[in-house]
Each structure stands twice: as C-alpha cells, then as structure tokens.
Predict the structure.
Amino acid sequence: MKINLALAQIATKLGDVEANLEKHLSYIKQAKEQKTDLLVFPELSLTGYVLQDLVASVAHKPTDDDPVFKHLLKASQDLDLVVGFVDEDSRHRFFIASAYLSGGKVLHVHHKVYLPTYGLFDEGRFFAWGDSIRSFDTRFGRVGMLICEDFWHASPPYLLWLDGADIMLFSSASPGRGLNDKEKLESARWVERVSKAYASMFTSFVAHCNRVGFEDGLLFWGGATVNDPNGELLARGPYFEEALTFAEMDLNQLRRTRARLPLLRDERTALVQKELDRILSRG
Amino acid sequence: MVELTINTDVAYKILTRFIKSEVERVGFSRVVVGLSGGLDSALSCALAVEAVGAENVLAVRMPYKISSADSLDHAQLMIDQFKVQHETIEITDMVEPLFVRDPQITKLRMGNAMARARMIVLYDQSESFKGLVLGTSNKTEILLGYSTLWGDMASAINPIGDLYKTHVRQLSRAINIPAPIVDKPPSADLWEGQTDENELGYTYAEVDKLLYLLIDQRYSPQECIEEGFNEKFVNSVITRIRRNQFKRMMPPIAKLSNRTIGYDFLYLRDWGT
C-alpha cells in the first residue's frame, strides 16, 4: 500500500486559535487537492508555542461539539489529520497534545510526556505531564505520535515500536539555536540525526513536522523530513519558510526492509524488562 | 583554540526574517535606525534594507558639535551604498543647555545625555516616519554593559544582540558593508579620540573569546583560566557582567498582589500576533 503523506510546516499566531484554525483549513484544502491521505501539523499548531499565561484561554477539547474541533473533524472525513493543541481534561489540567483525526472521529490523543523545563524552555511550569505512550490503529496500519522533547528521549520511540507502530509521526515547535560555522543550526542537525536514527534502528517510517515563524526572538526552523525504514530521506521541507511537503510512503518497504534486517524480530524485550527491573529496583 | 566563526548566510537569513516578521506583525512596514558611522548600526541598517526594502528604512545621523567628521562620512557611505532614506538631526542644541548648567559635568555624564538625546530623536522619528526603532547593541556590549541605559540600548527590536562584536565584523564583511567602517577601531564617538578598546582595557577579539566560553559554552572561571586567559582579566569581565545585569532588565516591581507584572503576568511581546 502506498500512502500520500503531507507535512504542513506553518507559522502560527500566538494565542489566536481562530486565525490558526483558518490556516489549518486552508492547508487541508491544498493537501486535499493534492490527494493527500494524511496531513500532519506541528506541535501546538492551533495555539502557538510560548503560551505562558495564555494556556487556559486557548485550551480546547477534541470533541465534535467543540467550536474548533468540529471543523477539523468534518475535514477529517476527506483525509486523516494530526493537529497540535492544548488539551484540557475534565479536572482542568492542561496538556500539550496531538490529536489524530480520521473519518470524523478522534482516533487518538497523545499528551506530551516530556516537558522541557530548562534553558529557554519553561513547559513544566505551565503544563501537566502526559503519562502514557501508546500506538494506535489507523487505516494505514499502526501509528505512534510524539511531540518534540518526547523524541529527544530514546524510550518513547522505543515503546511505540514495541507497541506496534510502523509509522511514527513527530511534531515539534523547535526554536533554532546553536549557530556556528556549519550550514545548519545545531538544533536542526540534532533533530535530523535522531529522526534518521530512529527510522534506521526501528526499521519504520519516521516523519517530523516542525513549525516555522518567530515568537519574539525565537525562530522555529521548519525543515520537515520523512525517513523510510532504511533510514533514507524521502522528503525534506525548506528551512524557515511555510511549506507543504509531500512524501509518498510505500508501506511495502516495511516488509522488504525487515526481511533483510530483522531488528524487530530479534529485539529481546524480556531481557530489556529483566534488566530494567534490576536497574530500577537497585538501591 | 576558541572558534568564533559563524555561518554568515544562516545568520543573514535569520536576522533579516526576524526584522521583517517582528515589524510587520505589529502593523508596521518601516524602521528607523540611528546611523552613527560605526559598524553595529551599519549592520542593523543593512539587515533592515534586505528585510523591508531601502525605501522603508530611515537612517538618522545625529551628530554633536565635536563628533568626528569620519562618523558623518562613514554614515554617508552606508546611505549611498544602500540607498536608504536619511535625515541628519544635530543634537547639540538639545544637550548644550544641560551641559552649560554645570561646569563640573563629566565626559561620562555628557556621553550618557547625548545617547539619550539620540534616543529621543529616534523615537520622535519613529512616530513621524511610522517605523520601529531598530536596536544596534551587540552581545559583547550588552554583556559588558558598555552602553547607556535608555540611550543607545533603547529600541523596539534588536537584530544583532546575539552577535558578539567579532561576529558583527564577520557578518558585515560578508554582506559588503564599506571597508572603512568595518576596519576602523570601534568608538562611541562621545568625545574626541575615544575608542571602545581603550576604555574597556582589552580588545574585542580577546574578550569575545572569553565571553563565548563563559556564556555560550558555560565554562567556569577556573576552566577559562586553564584555557590560558589571565586570571585578573577573567575576574574583571565576570564582575562587569554581574554589575551590569540591571541594564539588561526592566526595573523590578515590588510585589504586593497575587499577580504582578514581571513575575506572574507572563506573556510574550508577540501575544496575539
């Protein structure tokens, strides 16, 4: 099976959900015209990133009576969507979240489990920590979603892999930093390196969609990528500019790669569990 | 060996996009920049030309009666090469009445008053030209506090504040800022013969390497000394950074309520845009 993936690296208006929704709908229209099956938006694509005290005022629930999600759920009748938003639970905890929408339904919501609270980041001050990492079934097979800092740690992609994900969808709002003499910013080089590494090590498709635009002095660098189960780059978006990047993913590549390189078959999960138990019970 | 080289293409792309984005998102299309004849303001001006177009950049020369002729000439080189709109507004008549009141006035006080008079002119032009005031302070001088609070530090946005002076030179060369501006000794030109490096007591090339280790690479003072920097030099720079923290902040507000500006009323400037 071949599927047409599109990554929408958009700039957002900080705290203006209505304006950002309009932009989503316009990108969805473009993607649909290009016969896209699955369209991925970046982290917090409906709200902007450095929300601070705006968090509570931009939160939404991914339900069909929500004024924002009702439009997105309707659009998901035509193509599957991943959108970034602030999710408020019934007890008023706020999460950085990604929702996978398909056929008018919410198939899965992922809450960011690693909230960077160091350096220029202050997420832990404003958001609740997600507490699960789950793959889920879609019409294209089993998928896993992670948000930015989640995949700076090795364990979340590993868990998704073991939970059956063959397609990993990463979304980011990654501020550019670390300018030196190289052609790419350090932050871009790091993310591109690990995306390729996960695709190679987990013999899976790994797509990454990072936003663009400025928030005060922070520039989000864009540069969407899709890597195939051989770790080969299928598509790349530009740096710094809004773009819709398309990639045709031939899902049969999973079979061909894994027939050659049976890393999944040989993964010794019981050994991992035994050693983790030992390490974690120590002291 | 401390490596301070940056990729100037990437820096240029980011900084020009920054200016365009931050100017346009608040409903402006133009900028105002004080053009001193020195390198920092030349770079800010050139970046702005690429970002919003020469016709949308107002370069303002603001000489005092004893400003060096070179300063005006070098600013003219920029105006000619980059074809920006320009004004020359002398500040002598603004500051003289203050200076004659006190025969004891020091160079430092005069320099600060001139820097603040220029700020007044720029913000007045900001309103009449409908342009945001572009900052011209580099990372070296912000860290060392070699600047006048509410004077040359005042701006709406600062494209070059994360570039050390060494980087400013490198980027300026790469985008063909006229050589006499790039090559001359940096000076605030607040009095005759003044140069930054004489006043600071070290060269930018030296102090930038130290700052890069201390700030960017998080070296401890001891590690800098082990890298070959003189202990006195290291300590004097660290003291200078600490003592000038006040220039890098808004004035603290005494907290009384549950929600106080600066502490728990937190929004980016780009809120809603």
Remarks:
- Chain A has nine helices and 14 strands.
